[in-house]
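User: Hey, quick favor. My workstation is busy. Could you predict this chain's structure for me?
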Amino acid sequence: MIAGAFLYDIVAVRAQRDGMSWRRELARQLARRPLDDVWVLTGAAVAAALGLWLLLLAVTPGLRSLLPMRRTHPDVRAGLNRDAAAMVLRDRVMAVAGVQSARVRMGRSRADVRAVSHFRELDDVRADVTAVLDEAAEGLGLARPPTLSLRVRRPGRKER
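Assistant: No problem, here it is.
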């Protein structure tokens, strides 16, 4: 809202119209005062502190590691850590018969699952893992269930 007012004022000045009255008055006051005036220095300090605060907020990660969960009650908000969600999916995949190992990388909207199958047919394992993953992703209770990407392969050859 405030940014919109500033943008409107800048566009009005660029279009050869008068700026907002408060901005004209502020510019007039700043033109009259010397740079070492207490009010000018105070305003500069506040502007610098606000700029540093905004810069700090821009470089901090925020809550990117939390996945928002479905809201069953309007007053309650919950989130699930990405690592915990990946661990749940990995445990479910490891419970499928024929899966030797699994790795899950959980993003904000996508889960990449890599499974190694050692004694069953790959198509059968892939079908079972897909069914288990669909059920597990729904069971996480996320607001937006992740898009699942699955790769199933055989283990590499052992070297002698």
